[in-house]
Amino acid sequence: MDRSATIDYNEFLRAIRGPMTSTRKQVVEMAYKKLDKDGNGWIDINDVRGVYNAKQHPDVKSGKRTEDDVLKEFLATFEMAHSIRNNDAPNYVVTKEEFFEYYNMISMSIDDDRYFSQMIKAAWNMDEESKKQMADTKKRAAMDNDIFGTGERREEMAKKAEEAAFKGGDDKALKKHIRERIAARGARGIQGLGTKFKIADDDRSGALSKEEFKKAMKDFRIGLDDKTIARAFDLFDRDGSGEISYEEFLRTIRGSMNPFRKALAKRAFDIMDKDKSGILDINDIRQNYNAK
Questions:
Q1: Cα–Cα distance between 122 and 98 in angstroms, integer?
Q2: How far apart are CA 90 and CA 107, in angstroms?
Q3: How many helices (H) and strands (E) does the chain have?
Q4: Which residue, 106, 141, 217, 221, has most beta carbons within 10 Å?
Q5: Which CATH class is domain 144-254?
Q6: Is 96 exposed, middle or buried, given 0-12, 13-18 or 19+ CB atoms closer than 10 A?
Q7: Are the beta carbons of 57 and 40 closer than 8 angstroms?
Q8: Coil, strand or helix at 239
Q9: Which pLDDT value is given to residue 144?
Q10: Rounded Cα distance, 264 and 19, in Å
Q11: Residue 209, pLDDT score
Q12: In whole angstroms, what is the distance from residue 74 CA to residue 102 CA?
């Protein structure tokens, strides 16, 4: 994307995941319009001044920097698109293209459209109601009562039941436990998981040894004893090679497809499987793919 003759990880991931969905583009467009108060087609320090209050910044309060210095630093956050797109926009002026590219980079590591939308609205104070809804959801979860007591109590009991299950030999519960703990450490999308894998791969071999995997489980605070970690290693090492490749790591963490995706894959297979034999061979493919 930056014509440097090399492809870095972010460029690769950005190209593979593609642009934001129409739902995400719409909410980013709303945020941009709110910031571009004078409607001149870019966001500058005057636009941001009414949205981002720098008076309470520690450096401003101590006299080390001015409010404008902090506001410029804030605007510079969005200017990563200068190098990605090689545009000629001046410093401390954020074009619509840069604003969208910034959120494209964030979007690729967030799988859920609703979460992405709520994040944008809360960040730019676009919808006080969205904040209220998020707070109410948490409050209801905590206060909702049933025979087991409060929502917090039920959550605590569910965690204990899950822990008992994977310690008792339930491999599915063990994978679910590890998946949720890694997600809680900030690795929800493909980019986040890739980063966690790279951190764990100390020798940069492209695979995790037993010791690297064990160390990663400790570093990520998964909460497993050595015996359970050894069992988890065998679950991740799908081909029994004695090490865990990135594909094995990703496949195990992300789990199987949800019913919606499985249904789409089945439909695609059924279309390809012309003779309804249950397998795809060259004759099936020949009817759908023209190699001439």
A1: 20
A2: 25
A3: 17, 4
A4: 217
A5: mainly alpha
A6: middle
A7: no
A8: coil
A9: 46
A10: 21
A11: 92
A12: 13
Helix (H) / strand (E) containing 94: strand 94-95
| Cβ–Cβ < 8 Å for 206, 229 | no
Q: Looking at the structure, give the CATH architecture of the domain made up of residues 9-133.
A: Orthogonal Bundle (1.10)
Single out the residue of 26, 169, 157 nearest to residue 103, CA to CA: 26
pLDDT in tens, 165-190: 556 667 888 888 887 777 766 555 56
Is the pLDDT reported for residue 148 higher than 50? no
- Cα-only R_g, the chain: 24
Instruction: Give the domain ranges of the chain.
Output: 9-133, 144-254
Question: How many CB atoms are located within 10 Å of the residue 107 CB?
Answer: 24
- pLDDT of the residue at 288: 77
Per the CB < 8 A criterion, the answer to whether 182 and 195 are in contact is no
| Eight-state DSSP code of residue 149 | B
Pairing of strands 244-245, 42-43: unpaired
Task: Decide if 9-133 and 144-254 have a common fold.
Answer: yes
| pLDDT tens per residue across span 211-262 | 998 888 887 777 788 888 888 899 889 889 999 998 888 888 777 778 888 8
Q: Which residues pair with 245 in a beta bridge?
A: 207
Give me the amino acid identity at 209.
Answer: S
Stated pTM of the model: 0.39
Position 58 pLDDT exceeds 60: yes
25 — alpha (psi -120 to 50), left (phi > 0) or beta?
alpha
On the question of pLDDT at 68 being above 80, the answer is yes
Closest CA to 194 of 240, 246, 142: 246
**Contact (CB, 8 A) for 252 and 239:** no
